[in-house]
Amino acid sequence: MVERVLVVDDDTTVRDVVRRYLEHAGYEVELAGDGEQALRLMATHEPDIVVLDLMLPGIDGLEVCRRIRDRGSTPVVMLTALGEEEDRIAGLQIGADDYVTKPFSPRELALRVSSVLRRAGKAYEPRVVRDGNLVLDVAAHTATLDGRPLQLTTREFDLLAFFIGNAGKAFGRAELLERVWGWQFGDQSTVTVHVRRLREKIEEDPAKPKRLSTVWGVGYRYDQCSTD
């Protein structure tokens, strides 16, 4: 089945260039010029991934990303202008899976889309991992805490699965970028944002984490909790 990409950008030139590169890469592409049109298209035909510009007329990209995340776990790759670090971090906090900074290489964007889709749909071994009241069904790509479903993005799930699978080991942000994101380089604050969001979802007190600890001078370590 051909994977569908929804490209949301108010610049017609950017939309056309991105469309041509993605279609050349084998994707089916749908275009939207603003946030309202994007949400209407998503309501009628859910895409496999959304390429989303943050600077949109009307409903801006951050609000569109927030509504996409409220709907489910459709992956989102953000397009941000150079220097908009606060917006980029805000998008990652809302649940975007990746970002590309403008001006960007359309070829790099196509590779980022491919990488996010691969992680979103990759085959996991059919197994369930339990850590006290936290249950991760790797096959079904779901997680629960105290029996309640956790709303995790694709990237958050991948990061949590990696941490649990390597419990007790400390990893630096650069290593996590490479092993979870598949990036040889990138903004390491991306890891910081995702760890903070995971703590908010799996820790009783995110300010005093028991599972996802900071190892000063190194990075982060996942510690299994005893069964409650």
Automatic annotation (TrEMBL):
List of residues that carry 4-aspartylphosphate: D53
InterPro entries: CheY-like_superfamily (IPR011006), OmpR/PhoB-type_DNA-bd (IPR001867), Sig_transdc_resp-reg_receiver (IPR001789), WalR-like (IPR039420), WH-like_DNA-bd_sf (IPR036388)
Record domain Response regulatory: where: 4-117
Domain OmpR/PhoB-type: 126-224
Pfam families: Response_reg (PF00072), Trans_reg_C (PF00486)
Entry-linked SUPFAM superfamilies: CheY-like
Protein's name according to its UniProt entry: Response regulator transcription factor
